[in-house]
Amino acid sequence: MTEAPKNPFETMMAQAQEMAKALNPALESFSPKGFEALWPTMPKEVMEMMFGNAVNKDGLDAKTRLLLTLAGLTMQGAQADSAVRQTVRHALEAGAKKQEIVETIGQMSVFAGIPAMTKALELAQDVMDAKGDDET
């Protein structure tokens, strides 16, 4: 009996994993959470320069842009754990309050559904718990 063809994406991922193991066996135990540690949170001033209103002085500030990014990531079903966590960290650094982050994610429940909202809130809560202070 012949084996059913695999999903092309699964085949591509398996090939990429095999190639990565051949090039660097340490990649077999790669974790996206470990990758996050390589990219520390950018200072607010750098975010304003890159994502904020440096180009368009009357445009959105970095905090607003990051909250919009968080909304978009939630809408995608919060599938990209690292991206959600990094966006929350950067939003906090850009001056977002924890309540603003929770409200941004909560608002997306109307459009993305409760499961997507719940997943995004869990990821955001991990970041906010690690930050520690309740002032933000």
Structure description:
The chain is mainly α. It has eight helices and no strands. It has helices spanning 8-23, 32-38, 44-51, 62-75, 81-93, 98-107, 109-112, 114-131. Helix 3 crosses helix 4 (62-75). It is globular, with a radius of gyration of 18 Å. The mean pLDDT is 79.
Helix content: 55-70%
Strand content: under 5%
Radius of gyration: 18 Å
* Mean pLDDT across every amino acid position: 79
Order of helices and strands, N to C? Answer: HHHHHHHH
Number of strands: 0
Query: How would you sum up the major sheet?
Result: none
Shape: globular
Intertermini distance: 60 Å
Poorly predicted regions are: none
Structural class category: mainly alpha
DSSP helical segment count: 8
Short description:
The protein contains 8 helices and no strands. By secondary structure, it is mostly helical. The model has no long low-confidence stretch (mean pLDDT 79).
Give the helix/strand layout.
Blueprint: H1 8-23, H2 32-38, H3 44-51, H4 62-75, H5 81-93, H6 98-107, H7 109-112, H8 114-131
Spell out the key features of this protein.
136 residues, mainly alpha
